[in-house]
Amino acid sequence: MTDFPVGTLVWVEVGEGYLLPGKVKAKGKNNNSIIEANGKEHCIAFAQLLQGVKKRDAIPEKGMEDMIKLSQLHEGSMLYNLNLRYKHDLIYTYTGSILIAINPYHLFDIYNVETARAYEGQLLGALPPHIFAIANSAYMHMNANRQNQCVVVSGESGAGKTESTKLILQYLAIINKSTHNLITEKILEATPILESFGNAKTIRNDNSSRFGKYTEVFFDKQGCIEGAKISDYLLEKSRIVFHADEERNYHVFYEMISGLSQEHLDKLGLSAADKYFYLNQGRGISFESKNDSQDFQRLNEAIDFLGIQDTEKDGVFHLLASILHLGNVCFRAKSKEDQFASFKNTEALDVCCNQLQITKERLRVALTHKRTVTRGEEFHTPLLVEQALDARDALAKALYSHLFNWLVMKINSIVYANLPKYSVSIAVLDIFGFEMFQVNSLEQLCINYANEQLQYYFNEYIFHLEQQEYMKEKIDWKTIEVRDNQPCIDLISKFPIGLLHILDDESHFPKSTDESFLDKCHHEHSQNPNYIHPKQKVLVFGIRHYAGNVWYNVEYFLDKNRDVFRNDFVNILQDSKLQFISTIFNQTLTNQPNQTLAGTATRKRMPTVAAKFTQSLNSLIDTMKKCHPFFVRCIKPNEDKSSLNFIEKLVLEQLRYSGMLETIRIRKSGYPIRLDFDSFLSRFHFLARNKEKLREMSPKVGISHILKSVNATGFQIGQSKVFLRETTELILEKTKSIEIQAKCVIIQKFVFYSQL
């Protein structure tokens, strides 16, 4: 084609880095074309017209529900389709069985009981894309195959992962077959509790989950919910003592102060939130989208509904109050000559000790001195002001993290008890998205390592295993290449010189420093293509992640990884006269495994943060590998959290690093449904035109006969399995449903006439 007439729909490149949808508006001089794209008119030279402009196929006004149906597949067509749908409040789009969910930043009335019932029992694709459709597919697949399912909800912070997770659990509760719904309601009531204690306002997200959560919901043979289990990962402890400008500490602190009666606040020694150092650093005490007082009432109701005792609830509030008072404990140097720490005043310390029911003198000494025991003799070394502040903050973080651990254990003791061995489950993974800040520390390294592992899991399931099976079964297939992030995972965690292993080793040598850790990283990995060595001598290193390059500042890496909670603090808390405090510190500090990153037990080595996180992450991935997965890719459309504002470059960046273009390609040309011959014949044998001869046919011939009987096209028959496109399975199931209904009518007529 040498030219495009006026009115032709086109794809045009105008310097955005991807093709834009356009339309030829007029013809200019020298065979130039005036093309309107992105709200602007562009004059395209004839030579460029031949090379950089392609004819565009029209798609429906509201876009395509499933992107594998796009006739033209490239980044521009993906963006255009998603944008079209988003403008019509259609936030969900399929890529085969993968759901793309774009955060609308406002509420929709599409999550009620009636909507849930409409999706119940429907095959994926039979109704418009919806988070309920994914939950329903997992439920149907679990019941049909008696196999554990997992739904992996991924995306950046603020993309809507937490809300998607809640909606999946809500759907499972609605369609629950049990007539006894108490356990189901308790599972749902755990959500507001964990949100209050585990979520916080960040710059990017007003309700950001600051911990990872894997929720398993267990079902019996009849599809009734029997219980649930929650596993938590890497609570952000540092938020207890520090939060950035325009951010907040965990919701529960503000909710408690806003929601408790004045009498109860007086009992806890509490006043306004802005009076506490741990709450006022970000200058964002309250914000428009959250009603702390109302949310506290919701939290209180949930705690009561779960049956948490009043003495335990009272203990929780005393502990939370003690943290706030502890944050207001300040130190100063005794004198110019004596720089060791002394207390500026003891009022906050007095109230803190009163809330914890511990001896003031013991805590005073522990905060300003370090206790060591050498050859049976005890020494108390005075601390400098900075060291005393570190001791104070370490105690605050330990108090909160032990409370959070107790809370998860308490919830599990209520919703996960005496489950029979034959239970199957649907799990939902809601884990922190990829993080890249101005200053990134050990927390971000662990979070991004988890995201690398999950991306590998996605790639392995969608690309590698699928294509390996095609080759094994010898079906016609052209390999689709996808970026392999295994080298990046190896850089971080491969034994013995992965970054986390180096960190683990350094953390067990008293004389090691952050600088010595960084030097070893440079020495071992300066030639690694995924490792970025800084040009200047600074305390940072970089990693080329699948989602982009990230620089990590190693200052405090060793201290954070050691996460040492001093024995003198432990002893003080275990001796608390408040039973709740003494109980949780005796519970959580006994029988801790001494585990290193390499996985070998040792008496001398205490488990580090990196070791514990790596171990729990590996266990999680192993569990997920035994499940049939579904994927929900949450997309953040803008940085302003504004409603229906679709920033194409931001969306494209997320689509690129999550591999969605390659995903569409393999789903479009691939065969995600695979059944062994016996399973296929068992499910669809009565669709054969000639049922008599079917028994005489070989499995291959019989399967071919059935597929031809329904005029199916998207399939291939391998050595031992039949491979189907998702649309083909839908045709087979619809035809099967019609056949069954027709036979039921015949049987009903027979019964009716036989009774005359």
From TrEMBL:
Q: What's a GO cellular component annotated to this UniProt protein? A: cytoplasm
- Keyword annotations for this protein? Actin-binding, ATP-binding, Cytoplasm, Motor protein, Myosin, Nucleotide-binding
GO MF terms listed in the record are:
actin binding; ATP binding; cytoskeletal motor activity
Determine if ATP-binding is one of this entry's keywords.
Answer: yes
Q: Which PROSITE patterns match?
A: MYOSIN_MOTOR
Give TM regions: none
The question of whether Iron is a record keyword is answered with no
Q: Where is this region: Actin-binding?
A: 617-639
Location within or outside the cell: Cytoplasm
UniProt: ATP binding residues? G155, E156, S157, G158, A159, G160, K161, T162
Alphabetical list of Pfam families matching this protein:
Myosin_head
Domain Myosin motor: from-to ranges: 62-737
Q: Which domain of life is it from?
A: Eukaryota
Family the UniProt entry places it in: Belongs to the TRAFAC class myosin-kinesin ATPase superfamily. Myosin family.
List, alphabetically, the PANTHER family matched: MYOSIN VII, XV, SH3 DOMAIN-CONTAINING PROTEIN
Name the record gives this protein? Myosin motor domain-containing protein
User: What organism is the protein native to?
Assistant: Oopsacas minuta
